[in-house]
Structure formats: structure tokens, C-alpha cells
């Protein structure tokens, strides 16, 4: 029991450390690239950037003030599902943003470079926060509330919330800046996915063949990969068919295809990406 408690405390410390590091990276993306160049890339941080240039209010404090009513409304409407990590993420991002802004100068005034690197740095930070089961509030909460009241999907809610902020930037700054903000949002989301899913993209192979037993044995012995047999039937012929499911690395794709077609030149093979594979022979669960 003591060991389990120690492990849980250790994991909790690691999670909060990860959220802290993610908040620092996100704050640096804002202060080094986005805020100095008026790139309001959606969300609460984008809205706070617009307010900063209109009323000269600190971005971090503005983010905190916007997030407080959102958080309270979220708890009242959706229940206490946000938790302490959300509060911690909101506060740390706000503090680090206002801490860094007077200390770190903008690295470039080039809008394209700022949009790209601001999106990458912010995406790395938010990806870390999400990976350690945290959130920085903002657009996530808005999207959940929109979903609750209108029935829109989370993706549509996020698009609506971010689109509103970008439109404000276009009105109060200029259309060009708004276009760069859209680019930042795209890069940000892709970088978040990359952090969440990792670079090590495996491949899923589905093999349909009359010689499935022989192919299975060869995959097990030559590739030393596990194979799962699935039962299927031909939609046109109605015949029963064996479908082999196998997870392989990218470097093994050519070897698998050669192996299959040496046994059965008429085999039907589908190979697609698997962004995350957990289990024996691949990575362990976090």
C-alpha cells in the first residue's frame, strides 16, 4: 500500500512538472513571437493579445480574468470535471506569460517566421500539458460549453471560438495578420498531435489470402511480429475468408510485402498508419 502511494505521488509530481514545462514553452511562444507581432492565434491567449493592444492590459492577467468565469461556468454546467490540473495550468500559463513579456525580447519582426515558430513552440507546450493530463483552459472550455448548449461537435466548437478571435484580429489589426494567425493555429494543432502521438508511426497491415496460415507462420518466424487472425467473408462471393492483422515498423513494410507476395501473388494487402501502438514489442503505456 505504501509503495502504491509513493508511486502515485511520484506520478503526480511528474504530471505537474510536465504541465509546468508545457506552460513555460507556451508562454515563450506567445512572448517571443506571437504577442509582439499582433498574431492573435485563436483561444483566450489570442483574445488577450487583442485586448492588450487595445487597452494595454497585461496578457497573462487578461487570460486569467477571462478563464475564471469560463471555469466557473464550466463547473456549474458540465460538473467538476476540469479539476485541479486545469486551475494549475491556467494560473501557470498566465504567470509565465506576464513574467516573460518584459524580460524576453521578440526574436523576429517577420510575420511568417513568427507565425511558424510561435505555432511550433506553443504546440510543443500545449502538447506537453495535454500529455500530462492537464489543460490551460480557454478554448477547450468554450468548445465544451458550445457543445453543451448547441449540440455542435468539439471540433466545430473549437473552430467557431478560434475563428471569432481571428476575425477580431482582422478587424482591429489587419487582414494579413489574421491570415498569419490562421497559419499559426494550423501549425499549433499539428504540433500538438505530434507531441501526443510521437514520431514513431507504426504501420497496420491487413492481409487477405487463401494461404493465410502459411503467411502467418512466415510473419511469426521471419519478422518476429505477432499476428491476429480475424474472420471475414467476401461481400460479393459470400465465401469465408481469414484476415490477418499485423503491426509492423516502417522499415519492415517492404519485407512484409515481399514475404506475402512470394507466398500468394493474389493476396489483398492494406497498409495504413498507426499513430500510437502500446504493448509488447512497441512502447509502454504512459
UniProtKB/TrEMBL annotation:
The compartments listed are: Cell membrane
Which keywords accompany this UniProt record? Cell membrane, Membrane, Transmembrane, Transmembrane helix
The lineage's top-level taxon is Bacteria
Membrane topology is: Multi-pass membrane protein
> What residue ranges are annotated as transmembrane?
12-35, 50-75, 110-130, 151-173
Record carries keyword Lyase: no
A GO cellular component annotation in the UniProt record:
plasma membrane
- Pinpoint the DUF2179 domain residues: 225-279
Using the UniProt record, give the first listed, main subcellular location.
membrane
* UniProt KW Nuclease keyword: no
Pfam families registered for this protein in UniProt: DUF2179, YitT_membrane
Q: Matching PANTHER family, A to Z?
A: UPF0750 MEMBRANE PROTEIN YITE, UPF0750 MEMBRANE PROTEIN YITT-RELATED
Q: Would you tell me the protein name for this molecule?
A: Uncharacterized conserved protein
Read off the lineage from the record: Bacteria, Bacillati, Bacillota, Clostridia, Halanaerobiales
Amino acid at each position: 500500500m505504501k509503495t502504491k502511494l509513493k508511486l502515485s505521488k511520484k506520478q503526480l509530481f511528474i504530471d505537474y512538472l510536465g504541465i509546468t514545462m508545457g506552460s513555460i514553452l507556451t508562454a515563450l511562444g506567445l512572448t517571443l513571437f506571437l504577442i509582439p507581432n499582433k498574431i492573435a492565434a485563436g483561444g483566450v491567449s489570442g483574445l488577450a493579445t487583442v485586448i492588450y493592444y487595445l487597452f494595454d492590459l497585461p496578457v497573462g492577467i487578461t487570460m486569467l480574468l477571462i478563464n475564471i468565469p469560463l471555469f466557473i461556468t464550466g463547473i456549474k454546467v458540465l460538473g467538476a470535471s476540469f479539476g485541479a490540473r486545469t486551475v494549475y495550468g491556467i494560473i501557470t500559463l498566465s504567470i509565465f506569460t506576464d513574467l516573460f513579456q518584459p524580460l524576453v525580447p521578440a526574436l523576429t519582426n517577420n510575420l511568417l517566421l513568427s507565425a511558424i515558430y510561435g505555432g511550433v513552440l506553443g504546440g510543443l507546450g500545449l502538447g506537453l500539458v495535454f500529455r500530462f493530463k492537464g489543460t490551460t483552459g480557454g478554448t477547450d472550455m468554450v468548445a465544451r460549453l458550445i457543445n453543451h448548449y448547441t449540440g455542435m461537435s468539439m471540433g466545430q466548437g473549437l473552430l467557431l471560438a478560434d475563428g471569432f478571435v481571428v476575425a477580431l484580429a482582422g478587424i482591429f489589426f489587419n487582414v494579413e495578420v489574421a491570415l498569419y494567425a490562421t497559419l499559426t493555429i494550423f501549425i499549433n494543432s499539428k504540433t500538438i498531435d505530434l507531441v501526443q502521438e510521437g514520431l514513431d508511426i507504426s504501420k497496420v497491415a491487413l492481409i487477405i489470402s487463401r494461404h493465410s496460415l502459411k503467411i502467418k507462420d512466415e510473419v511469426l518466424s521471419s519478422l518476429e511480429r505477432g499476428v491476429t487472425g480475424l474472420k471475414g467473408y467476401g461481400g460479393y462471393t459470400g465465401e469465408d475468408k481469414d484476415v490477418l492483422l499485423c503491426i509492423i515498423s516502417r522499415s519492415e513494410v517492404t519485407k512484409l510485402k515481399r514475404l506475402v507476395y512470394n507466398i500468394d501473388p493474389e493476396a489483398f494487402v492494406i497498409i495504413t498508419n498507426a499513430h500510437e501502438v502500446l504493448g509488447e514489442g512497441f512502447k509502454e503505456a504512459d
